[in-house]
Amino acid sequence: MKLFGVFLLLFVATFAISISMDMLALGIPLQEALANLWESVGLEKSMVIIGFLLTTVYILILGLRHKEK
Amino acid sequence: MGKEQICSRQLFMLIISFELGTAIVFGLGMDAKQDAWIVILLATVVGLLMYVMYTELFRLFPGQTLTQYIPQIFGKVLGLPLSLLYITFFIYLAARDLRDFAELIIGAFLRDTPLAVISFIIILVVCYAVFHGIEVIGRANEVLLPIVLIMLVLMTILLLASNQIHMTNLQPVLGEGIKPIIKATFPLAVAFPFGEAVVFGMFLPYLNQPSKARATGLAALLVSGFMISYTTAVNIAVLNADITFMANFPLLATVRLINVGQFIQRLEIIAMFLMFVGGFIKIALFFLGAVIGASSMFRFPNHRTLVVPVGLIIFTSSIYIARSLPEHLEEGLKIAVPILLIPLELILPFAMLLIAYVRKWYLSKTNNS
Which residue in B258, B261, B254, B215 sits closest to B238, CA to CA? Predict the structure, then answer.
């Protein structure tokens, strides 16, 4: 649970930096920057979603193994 | 710290590979045109001063990483968010470097391959290295760096043999005075790549002889500064200042011109190898710095637990960081430098050093009284 929390915290923090850099570089508001994130190519979006799910499963397995011990 | 240790020779070689990393890929200081090589030498001098600052902090807080002594300096309320900011900063820089190298491969060779596929393959290799820790990365670099140096010498010999080096392209030296050089040096050339050595604040506690941290690092920065300056001078001498400025990857363009007797040609592999070793080490060190920081901050038994989650964050943000290479470069060179790099590489460490000195002075005064 802690690992998942840290993962989410770092995920949100890194994306906050990326989005704010995007907003400053392109001079666009937050809503548009968030929309840009979602409008990526299909394959990239799929890979990211699959990666996110696999990481979640990995963290769950780690958590279960830790509980067993 | 853990059982892992690196010797001063490994630190020396790691710093060289780290500094060469992306700096050798992109043309640095090109706003000063044919004097760009002087810009890099000047930036090296400032980089040396910044490294002295980082090692001074390490001397004041021996055996501790950057993210461990920040809460001691600023207190927990301000220090913990600042430590988290540094961890995120290292993840962000790793993502930027990953994107640089994925774009390099797409631009130079695999034009139709999706960005995500290339980034994924690179991050897999880096994850493996980071999983095994600083000692393994240091040893791998001991094998790779000598090959890089041989490639650099080979590149010069082949360019000379191809009759492509035109020293007139480097003239007039200081043609427009010192002003453009100063302008190109501050803040860009200082923050990137020399200020990025702030990440070594995460690895200095792993040095088996901590007293050698400063001398080793300074020597490595000096050598890498000369090497980057030399490569830039070769690029300009071969391509001329305008083409070097316009090329996305000047080193690759330079190497493409090697042609000895219509026989030895198409040696892009030399440039790719140089870029890749540096890139691999740079991404791995930022990645490792982030996981070491996060594991100590959130009290995980070792850094390995965090490798997969942080690897995914780096992979994801490298894709979403920008929609195109020009946007990525614009963000990295014009926006990130004043907003992120200068505050986190220069202003904050300087403030930390100042507070640490004042606190030390105050404590010694109260102890005496």
Answer: B254
Q: Which chain A positions have a beta carbon within 8 Å of B85's beta carbon? A: 13
pLDDT band at B335 (very low <50, low <70, confident <90, very high): confident
Residues of A in contact with B308 (CB under 8 A): 55, 58
Distance CA B249, CA B268 (A): 11
Phi-psi region of A27 (alpha: psi -120 to 50; beta: other; left: phi over 0): left
Confidence check: pLDDT of B2 > 70: no
Residue in chain A closest to B319 (alpha carbons) equals: A44
The one-letter code for the residue type at B227 is M
CA–CA separation, B332 and B338 (whole Å): 10
User: CB–CB of B321 and A21 under 8 A?
Assistant: yes
In a domain, B94, yes or no: yes
Restricting to B residues 318-337, those with a Cβ less than 8 Å away from any Cβ of A are 319-323, 327, 330-331, 334-336
pLDDT, average across residues A2-31: 85
| Residue pLDDT, tens place only, B88-115 | 999 999 999 999 889 888 888 888 888 8
Query: CATH number of the domain that B277 lies in?
Result: 1.20.1740.10
CB of B337 closer than 8 Å to CB of B188: yes
Tokens of A44: 């990239």
Query: CA B36, CA B172: separation in Å to the nearest integer?
Result: 12
Name the residue facing B88 among A2, A17, A25 (closest C-beta). A17
Domains held by chain B: number: 1
| Residue of B120, B124, B312 best to disrupt the A interface, most CBs of A under 10 A | B312
Domain hosting residue B138, numbered range: 8-368
Residue B3 lies in a domain: no
Mean pLDDT (whole number) for B43-55: 93
Q: What is the pTM of this model?
A: 0.92
Query: Are the beta carbons of B317 and A18 separated by less than 8 Å?
Result: yes
Do B308 and A11 make contact, defined as CB atoms within 8 angstroms? Answer: no
ipTM of this predicted structure: 0.85
Task: Name B322's Cβ contacts closer than 8 Å, sequence gap at least 6.
Answer: A22, A25, B99, B328, B331
How many A×B Cβ pairs under 8 Å? 99
Residue B104 lies in a domain: yes
